[in-house]
Amino acid sequence: MKNILKKITMLSVLLSFFAFSGCDELSDLTVNIPLEIAFDVRGNSDSPNNSKNFRLSQYEAWREHQEDVESAKFLKASYWTISASPNLTADLQFSLSTGSGEPLFTFLMNNIVADDYKDKAYELKLTDGQIEALDNYLSDLSESDKSFKGNLSVTNIKGSMPFQLIGKVEIVLETEVKTDLQ
Question: Are 151 and 95 in contact (CB under 8 A)?
Fold first, then answer.
């Protein structure tokens, strides 16, 4: 008898919830879109770098939602090492600019042991001003295929020479996407 009363009570609560809250339209959905930029930096000098030009349309997740994106903003960014010369330690600097060269942000990672970031991410903690610059660039979606330039430079290199560092930076955008669900 107690089980039947519990079920009736739960059913009443659920019915009341739907009756009083209604079925609101689901018109927007938050979709996180990762932008992965791979770098291969190698050499004998103390400050080699590798630059990559890229566009939002290069990423399948962006193309999939592009027509319905109402807004996009920075969520997070991380660095990973894919492979590196043995015992490589260095300072890494990642810079992101617009395709036309306007700086968006620069982030310095001091005294990085490259192998430490093969299995875990190094979170790039941007300042409010850096986030604002990126968000402002993303705010004008009339140019839906935004272009960027990423640059990874390596300095204060310790370890065997010549060295090689293959790494990636992932920038995650939080987008508001309109849906057809009602």
Answer: yes
Residue 60: inside a domain: yes
> Would 99 be classed as within a structural domain?
yes
Domain range for residue 93? 25-178
CA distance 104 to 114: 25
For the segment 9-51, what is each residue's pLDDT rounded down to a tens digit?
Answer: 444 444 444 444 444 455 678 999 999 999 999 988 777 999 9
Burial class (CB in 10 A: 0-12, 13-18, 19+), 169: buried
Instruction: Give the CATH number for residue 163.
Output: 2.60.120.380
For 16, the token pair is 């009341």
Count of domains for the chain:
1
Residue at token pair 């990559």: 52
Residue 36, exposed/middle/buried by CB under 10 A (0-12, 13-18, 19+)? Answer: middle
